[in-house]
């Protein structure tokens, strides 16, 4: 599993589970880092629940009735990694991990604050073992503060940070985004921060602690809407009509119904040509719709006019007509349509890799580096697939490895 990306030579000890942490370390692995995923010795929790390797969110394996089949969540976040197993409640397991910590560049964990300390591999201990280590902690709400001990989970953070209040239509209830947006944002921020810490270490030799959390990541991603709320006298934005994508931007900016589906428009500066294409009266000279604030204040009426006209043709017909005029337009695709889009193939965003459970289609890295490209080199590992290999590389003798197995530390 040779790597030649920009992080080739960087070794990461990965204690993460679920999504925020594993997606971050997968990004580091895609960039060439040697990511060693540290998993429980038993793949099921003490109370009999499957860990995030196995689950119900899409089962993939040779026997769909087998309880040990891989979840889509695990497969989406763990490619390009090696897997070792250890019992971190066993003294010899902790001692083994300490030897690994002394040899790696990055330790990445996403347990609640205090868990790694109780296991004996918290930041201070790891810094004693390896003063130049970059130690990353991904949590729900940060290492301290009023919410530090609360369970952090994507949909909870969406609710707390206002994402739910911004989604859904004005006549309905708040709506979650639909994907694990806070987890993904937290992962990207974490990977970025670790890469920055590695640059600092390369310049100074100094390691440091990195903290990233779902809460801050989701709040920061409100971006212009957060800044607008904080500085505008307008106050709390209200959820918009079902057609509209933003509480602060006038139409056309959103999804609109056509004869056979929906279309996305972002064409506030193209009202005249839009009116011509739709074969309706020129809305650019109508005082109710001619400029930003009139359209904003009359957005429901404006959207109704658009949808009445759009109902006459199919999505594909409207897209073709509008693209001829270089309008900002796109079809609203299903996942099947999205993954069939020619741009997906052109950008190599779906890649098939061999695995012990058969060929797997995975989403490709969403960035391209001309000289040090990110790559998918291997499928997600099987449970403990590389334990012996990693320990041998770290200097453990065959006798030591056999003893760890005999003592059920690995």
Automatic annotation (TrEMBL):
It comes from Pontimonas salivibrio. InterPro entries: CoA-transferase_III_domain (IPR050483), CoA-Trfase_fam_III (IPR003673), CoA-Trfase_III_dom3_sf (IPR044855), CoA-Trfase_III_dom_1_sf (IPR023606). The keyword Cell inner membrane does not apply. Residues 41-65 are annotated as: Disordered. Pfam families: CoA_transf_3. Transmembrane segments: none annotated. Keywords: Transferase. The keyword Transferase applies. PANTHER family: SUCCINATE--HYDROXYMETHYLGLUTARATE COA-TRANSFERASE. It comes from the Bacteria. GO terms for molecular function: CoA-transferase activity. This is Formyl-CoA transferase-like enzmye.
């Amino acid at each position: 599993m040779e790597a030649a990306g920009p992080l080739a030579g960087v070794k990461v000890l990965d204690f993460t589970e679920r999504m925020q942490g594993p997606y971050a370390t997968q990004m580091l692995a895609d960039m060439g880092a040697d990511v060693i995923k540290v998993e429980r010795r038993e793949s099921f929790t003490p109370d009999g629940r499957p860990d995030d390797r196995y689950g119900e969110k899409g089962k993939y394996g040779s026997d769909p009735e087998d309880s040990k089949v891989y979840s889509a969540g695990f497969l989406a976040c763990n490619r390009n990694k090696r897997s070792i197993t250890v019992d971190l409640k066993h003294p010899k397991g902790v001692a083994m991990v300490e030897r690994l910590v002394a040899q790696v560049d990055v330790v990445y964990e996403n347990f609640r604050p205090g868990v790694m300390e109780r296991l004996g591999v918290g930041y201070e201990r790891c810094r004693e073992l390896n003063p130049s280590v970059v130690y990353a902690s991904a949590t729900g709400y940060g290492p301290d503060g009023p919410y530090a001990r609360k369970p952090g989970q994507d949909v909870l953070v969406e609710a707390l940070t206002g994402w739910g209040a911004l989604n859904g239509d004005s006549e309905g209830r708040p709506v979650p985004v639909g994907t694990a947006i806070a987890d993904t944002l937290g992962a990207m921020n974490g990977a970025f921060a670790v890469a920055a810490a590695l640059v600092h270490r390369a310049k100074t030799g100094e390691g440091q602690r990195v903290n990233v959390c779902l809460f801050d990541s989701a709040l920061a991603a409100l971006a212009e809407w957060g800044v607008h709320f904080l500085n505008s006298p307008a106050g709390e934005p209200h959820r918009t009509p079902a057609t509209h994508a933003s509480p602060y931007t006038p139409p056309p900016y959103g999804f609109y119904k056509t004869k056979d589906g929906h279309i996305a428009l972002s064409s506030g500066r193209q009202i005249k040509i839009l009116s011509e294409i739709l074969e309706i009266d020129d809305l650019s000279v109508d005082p109710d719709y001619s400029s930003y604030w009139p359209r904003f204040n009359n957005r429901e009426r404006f959207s109704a006019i658009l949808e009445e006209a759009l109902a006459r043709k199919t999505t594909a017909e409207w897209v073709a007509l509008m693209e001829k005029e270089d309008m900002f337009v796109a079809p609203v695709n299903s996942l099947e349509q999205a993954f069939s889009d020619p741009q997906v193939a052109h950008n190599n965003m779906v890649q098939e890799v061999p695995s012990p459970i058969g060929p797997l289609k995975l989403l490709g890295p969403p960035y391209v580096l001309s000289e040090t490209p990110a790559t998918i080199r291997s499928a997600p590992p099987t449970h403990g697939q590389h334990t012996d290999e990693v320990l041998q590389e770290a200097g453990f003798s065959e006798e030591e490895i056999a003893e760890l197995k005999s003592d059920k530390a690995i």
